[in-house]
Amino acid sequence: MNDQNNNTKTAASQVKASRNWEQKNRKKATVASYRRTARSFIKNHAEQDDLEELKNLIVEREKLLGE
Fold this sequence. Notes:
The chain is 84% helix and 0% strand. By secondary structure, the chain is mostly helical.
């Protein structure tokens, strides 16, 4: 029974390694978090008007990056 419970837990060394990476790469970790949040919102919560607003924001951002 104990072995089955351990299959779903992350090893302490892996957790430590992940935290170390996040501390050394704060900007990358923050951007990755924003990306996950945006995808989750779009997939699970966005209504039609939200999607329209996001499309407009994307077009504006693409223009800004293209300059």
